[in-house]
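Message: A physicist's question: would you kindly supply an amino acid chain plus C-alpha cells?
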Amino acid sequence: MNCIVRKTFFKILLSACVSLILVLLLYRLSGGGAGLSGAVSVAVGEASVLLVGSYFVCQICQASLRAVRSRVLIGCALRRRSDSVALPSFWDMLQVTLVRGACADMLPARLGEASYVAMLNGGWRIPGGDCLSSLSVGIFFDVAALLAVLFAAVAFGGGLSLAGAAAVLFIVCLTGYVLLFRGVSSAYSLASRCFPARFMNFRPYAWGMGLLRDTAESISAISESRTSFLVLVLSVAIRFVKYAGMIVLFRAVSAAAWPEMLGTGVSHVLIALISAEGAASLPVPSFMSFGTYEAGGTLALTALGFGMSESVGVLLAMHIVSQVIDYSLGVSGFVFFIWEKRGREAKMGGGIRTFLTILTAAVLSAAAMWPIRSRCRSVNPEQKNTGIGAPVEPGADFSPPAGFRGRIVWSSNKSGSHDIYMMTLPSGRTERLTNSDHADTYPRFSPDGRRIAFSRSRPKWVSHRDQRQWDVWTLDLETGKEKLVAANAFSAVWTPDGKSLVYVKNADSLAQCPADNPEGEKIILTGPMCGLPEGTIFQTPNVDGTGRFLAVTIRRRGVWVFDLQDVSLGKNIDGGCEITWWNGAETPRIVWVNHPGKQKNTFFTAEGPEYGKKRLLDIAGDYSHEYFPKVSADGKWLVYGASTGGHEHDVEDYEIFLWRIGTEESSIFRVTWHTSNDNWPDVFADGGSAEL
C-alpha cells in the first residue's frame, strides 16, 4: 500500500512539474511575463458571473446528455445477459458522469476516464466488459460528432479551410471503427486460438481473456441494437452544448482583459478549443492538463493570426475557471455516490439527490471562485511595481541633455496608481499633475503647451488593452483644472490648431471633438469607411502637422496612413504598432515600432509618399525593448519608453528616455529612475509646438 501511495505521489509531482515548465515556457515565449499574469488575474477576477454561470449550466446539460447516452449503451449491452443486472438510473449515471468529467484530466491521455468503469463496476456491479464497451463506444461517437462540428465550422467559418483537419479526423474515425467494432472480437478470437487452454489456469490471463470476451460481446450487442443513430444524435448534442459553454466562457474571460478577442469568430474559437482539447489528450504527464491545453490552443490561435500573449492568457484564464467548476461538479457527484453506497439515502428520490448534487456543486464552485476572484482583484497591476526596493533617483551628477529646454510628460504608477508627471528641463524639476484613484495615462501636450489631454479609466484600473473603459480629459497646466471631453474614449491627440482632439471611440472607430465643446463629437473613421471589416480595432491615432494626414495602428493589421480628405485611400505601411508623426520636414515622415530588434523591438521611420522603411533606433544596452515613440514638433528630439525585455505596457518596468535624433546613443538622457511602470511620454520643446 505504501508503495502505491509513493508511486501516486511521485506521478502527481512529476505531472505538476511538467505543467509548471510548460506554462512558464509559454509565458516566456509570449513575452507577457508579469504583465500577462496581471491580465490573467483581471480576466479571472472580472469575468462575468452571468456568463460563468451559463458555462456551469452548459456543463450540467452536457453531463445529463452523457448520462442518457451511457444508459442507452449499457442497456444494449445488458440485454444479452441472462442474469439480472439492474440498469443504473439516470440520476445514478449523472453522478458517474460528473465524476468522470472531473477525473478525465487528472492523468495524461485521458486515463482518468477509468473512474467511469470503477464507479459503475464497484457501485452498481455492472460487468467490466459492459463498462468498457459503453465507454469506448461513447468515445468513438464523440470523435465522430467532432466531424460534424468541423463541417459546421467550415460552413459558417467564412472560407476557413479545415479540409486537412477533417481528413485526419475522418481517418481517425475510420481506424477507430475498425479497431473497435472489428478489432476487439478479432483480438479475442486470435488469442483463443493461439494460446493453449492450460493458460486459463493462470488467473490474470483468465481474467484478461474474460474481460476481453465480455467487451467484445457487449460491443457486438451495441452494434446490433440499431441505436447508432440515437447515440450519434446524442453525441452531436453533447458536442454542441460543450462547445457552446466553452465559447461563452471564452467571452467571459476575454471581456475584462482582452476585449479585442471578443470579435473572434465562432469558427476560430472552435478550432482553438478543439486543438487545446486534442493536446490535453496527448500522453504527456501534465497535471489537470495545464500547459498542454494552453499549448494546443495557442498554436491554433497564433496560426489564425492572434497574438501569442493574449492567446496564452485567454486559454489559461478559461482553464482556471473551467477546472474550478468541473472539479466542484465532480466532487459533488462523488460525495453523493458515497452517500448512496452507504445506504443513507434510501428514501431520497433521484430528482432530489440530483438537485442537491447540483446545489452542492454550485456552492463549491462559488466557494472556490470567491477567494480566487478576490485575490485576482487584489492583484492590482497599478501597484505591482511599487515597493520593489527603494526608488532610484538621479544623483548629484544630474546633467540634462545639451540644447534642450522644455518639458516631458508621462504616466507613472510609482505612487500606487497611474498618474501624470511632468519634468521641466534643464532644471530637472518634477511635479505630479494628477492625483486620482483611477488610472491616468496617455498624456499629450496641446500645440501651445498650455494644456494636456489624457485618458482616465472608468474603473479604478483597467488594462490598456481594453480601450472601451476610458474617458478623455484635458488638464490646464496653469490652473490645474481638469475637464471631461469624451466618454468611452482613449488615446487622444490634438489637431494642429489646438482646438480639437482626435481619439479612439469604443475601440472600433476614431472620433474628433472640439476640446471646449464635448457635444460636437463626430466619427471620422471606421472599418467600413476604409474598406475594412466592421469591428476593426484602432489604436493610438496621430494627426500630422498639416492636419491632413492621419496615422493609426490597426489591430493585427499593422500601421496605416490615411488622407483625411478621402479615408478610403488608406495605405498599410508595415506591421508593428504605435505609429507617430515626425514633423519638421518638407514631406510627411512617420516613426513606429516593429520587429526584429535586440530585445525584439526597433524604431523604424519612413518618408512619404512612398514610405520606404528605414531603421531609426535600436539601443545596444539593457533597455532595448523600445516603445512609446514621440517626436518633438521641431523634429529634433525623440522621447520614448524602454524596458529590459518585459512587454505589457502598463505593468512592466519601463523607463523614459530622451534622445537628440541623429546623435550617438551614449548621449541619450534617462528621464525616470524608478522601479515603477512609466509609459506614454510626450515632449514639448520651448520655442516650438508639440507635434501630434
Remarks:
- Residues 383-392, 688-692 have pLDDT under 50 and may be disordered.
- The first helix runs from residue 2 to 30.
